[in-house]
Here is the input.
Amino acid sequence: MSAEQTVGMAQRPAEKKSTRPGIDWRGRLLDRAPFLVACLMLALIIAIYGSLQSGVFSLDELNLDTAAAMTLMLAATGQTIVLVRGGIDLSIGGMISIGTVIAATRFTDDPSTVALWSLVILALGFLIGALNGLLISLLKLQPFLVTLATWSILNGVAMIILPTDGGSVPSWWVGFASAQLVGLTSPVWMLLALLVVWWWFRATRVGIAIQATGSNEKSAFLSGVSITRVNLVTYGLSGLFAAGAALFLVTQTGAGSPTIGKDYILPSVAAAVIGGVSLFGGRGHLAGTLIGAFVLTLIGNLVFVLHVSSYWQPVASGIILLLSVLASSVAEKAARNRVQ
Amino acid sequence: MDLVTVKGLSKRYGGIVALSEATFSACAGEVHALLGENGAGKSTFIQILSGAVQHDGGSILVDGQDYRPANPDAAQALGIAAVFQELSLIPDLSVEQNIWFRHEPRTLLRTVNRAEMRRKTLALLDKYSFPALRPDQELRRLTLAERQIVEIAKGLAKDPRILILDEATSALPAREAEWLLKLTRQLATEGRLVIFISHRMAEVRAIADRLTIFRNGSTVAAHEANAVSDNEIVTQMIGRHLDRLYPERVSTATDLIALRVSNLSSGSRLTGVDFALREGEVLGVGGLQGHGQRELFQALFGATRATGAIELWGKPTSIGNPRQALTGKDGIALVPEDRRGQGLLLTKSVRENLTLSVIRRFTENGLLSRQKEAALVKEMVDFLRIKAGTPEQLAGTLSGGNQQKVIFGKMLLTQARVLLLYDPTRGVDVGTKGEIFQLMRDLAAKGYAILFHSSDMPELVHVADRVLVMRNGRIAATLEGDRISEAGILRAAMLESEAA
Ligand SMILES: Nc1ncnc2c1ncn2[C@@H]1O[C@H](COP(=O)(O)OP(=O)(O)O)[C@@H](O)[C@H]1O
Ligand SMILES: [Mg+2]
Here is the structure.
């Protein structure tokens, strides 16, 4: 470079861009648009529900609805972790079924037996999930295919353990879902616990590595992330939460069912997507998923109080899903145009 | 004693030999340049050093110890960090999260200590006088150059003994590139080894103590930097004598106006731009980086919204989106800035990349004619001398220069005769650069009209028939004939702005 040029460089009008962070409000708003849309939807549904039914704005209603949504919430929590990693887990359906049938056939009135088998179910959930993760990494297979296969296998095993709906769990286990502490039932406390654990988990190195792998796997690898370990942990956690969902589900049904799990596969994905979790990985939060789960659950209530055929429920859920996907794609486009 | 000694290193990808019998040695406290044409194996070499891929044969000694990292983590543990050509950043994390990724400072709860991370980020950016970056900004909102800078910060955050920079300056504007050169010297003074890959001879000259030259996967020579001439280096790199980099400038411009732009504006980035590009002309667009050049190209291609009038071959055109801009003989074709992101489908073959956007040309009665396609692909591959094993090789595995040629081919196949070339030689080796300039002149002679931006000023000076100098989103000057010089461009780009 010539001397003249070097001097010139120094005189170049400095680009005014401060190192000190100012907050990019519009950007943040756009990033959160899908989540905000989900909140709006929930508010709207609650408003309609509240105008048709009395006593909607009460603690009792909160306790009831949370209990109704909790199985889906637990399943969707696992699903959210997997989606943020950029994968998908269909096998949770099988895991939930297996969990309920093991509980319904092994639980006795003796609390220590229940504790033992609960641990077995949770451990099984984690291990089967981890196996999913291992297969995906080692065989370099699509998560969709691997978890579809494990779902089918688990489903079969559940049928072998308990061919038809039945069995039972002790009544004190059923009572767990309505146990109260300072006016709030255990499902509400679980909901809060989920949020706290998520908030913690997302800020740990493992949590960040999972998000990063979902955002860009190649970059994560080049940065030293072990993709195999990430898959092991993500799918393991997903299985663990599915097992937890099963344990909660039997408090609601009081029995085991070898087929019930499939009812949670797609809703768990839908709840996450409604809440703004990206199917492409890297983006989304549990708060959104939980809101999504509430939306899907309350739609059921709404259909009930409107006295229309219950077949309207899936129709309404589908429309809401479409609306939220639309909202996030509009927001994404707006955000992209801003960068240019 | 040498810090790194490499002997007989080899690496194959299926049938493709990326490295064979490469040797290398470098010691602490030096800047060691690694030179070679695109595809010579430089990136493969540094990927092996940094643990991203594993070698098939040969040995690497670091500090006299046998070294064979199983993954990037193992390499980093030994103090070896790389600034990768394809970047290793996470789009959904913030700048500071990216810099400290996997090494974040933590609180007692094992969560990321944000305050500490911010403090360390600012300290790091300050220590090495980094250009302005906002630590909290999400990476996907940054420009390519800013990302490159973040990647450098990320490498330095590991406080490595060996830092490898793979074509790090190629994505940087002049001022930032100069900063990086200073930084590189500073790192060597601190006793680190910097392995520096660049296609810009001036940079290598400015900072390298020693250099190693690769050709076709093997080491052809290693020199003390001041004991060898530019010509010798280039000859050893390309294995033949290169007479001249720039083709002779014979203006082939006619009076026919191919592209007339009036009062083109887009937000605050582009204001009232007027110019005319003639048939057979190579029109340069210069000026300091970030003064509207990118926006001009994007607006012309319809990738950003803009107001104003555009006439193509005398016909008023509204260019709404890239798809519209592409069509037919009267259309516009663009070679984009970020070839890996926008220009190429990395996981598709060379053939598919060439023909996807013009698939209609190979259809007869609604059926795809594979023969016709194959013939055109072959013609393009030969014409551009694209070095690929077969047309079915994945574009992502080609070297940079060959990827760029594929984009050229794609653009030529659209048959558009107004070409927008945005920094087409970025990250391309000298040999291929020469070919690209010659190609531009040949196309101009055939009646194509070319709008050409380069971040390398000498290229504008030697290749363009006229140069538009942009400043603050306007055209500050149009240089012609003898007035085209680096000094002239710089003066128009900066000095008058002080009066304004
Ligand atoms: N993943 C891969 N698969 C197949 N071929 C590859 C791959 N990576 C690199 N190559 C080939 O190896 C050779 C060396 O490439 P590279 O190391 O990127 O060269 P350079 O960095 O010197 O331009 C090229 O011919 C390239 O096409
Ligand atoms: Mg390279």
